[in-house]
């Protein structure tokens, strides 16, 4: 039987949960930057990838954090669904960038990466 697991998923899931959450937070920072730079293709690609990253992570974390990630994933899907309206409106695009920045900070907090000692 053929596996439905992609190489990207296998590679991503090799990291521990903190690093995975760090990747998700980093993607939200990219979303913000791409919105400000009018890089539509980049935004759409990062949204799709981030939805996958959340799917591959949420089942392995505490239920409260998983719920928050899934709610964020729903927002990503809503952005995709209303994409033409968002991208054609500077104000809505700016709101998306601001929300992405907020999500980046929140997910980075979840990761506890900033609390881990450096070696």
Tell me about this structure.
The chain has 119 residues and is mainly alpha-helical. The chain has 6 helices and no strands. Helix 2 runs antiparallel to helix 3, helix 3 runs antiparallel to helix 4 and helix 4 packs antiparallel against helix 6. The radius of gyration is 15 Å and the shape is globular.
Task: Kindly summarize this structure in a few lines.
With 119 residues, this protein is an all-alpha fold. Helices cover 78% and strands 0% of the residues.
Key attributes of the depicted protein:
6 helices; single chain; 119 residues; mainly alpha
Distance between the amino and carboxyl termini:
43 Å
Mean pLDDT: 92
Number of helices in the DSSP assignment:
6
Helix percent band: over 70%
Topology:
Layout: H1 7-14, H2 17-36, H3 40-58, H4 63-81, H5 83-87, H6 90-111
Helix pairs in contact: 2-3, 2-6, 3-4, 4-6
């Amino acid at each position: 039987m053929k596996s439905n697991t992609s190489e990207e998923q296998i590679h991503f899931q090799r990291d521990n949960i903190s690093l995975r959450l760090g990747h998700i937070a980093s993607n939200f920072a990219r979303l913000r930057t791409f919105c400000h730079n009018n890089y539509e293709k980049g935004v759409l690609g990062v949204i799709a990838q981030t939805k996958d990253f959340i799917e591959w992570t949420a089942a392995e974390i505490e239920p409260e954090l998983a719920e928050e990630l899934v709610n964020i994933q729903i927002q990503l899907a809503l952005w995709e669904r209303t994409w033409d309206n968002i991208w054609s409106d500077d104000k809505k695009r700016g709101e998306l960038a601001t929300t992405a920045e907020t999500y980046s900070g929140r997910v980075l907090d979840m990761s506890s990466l900033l609390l881990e000692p450096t070696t």
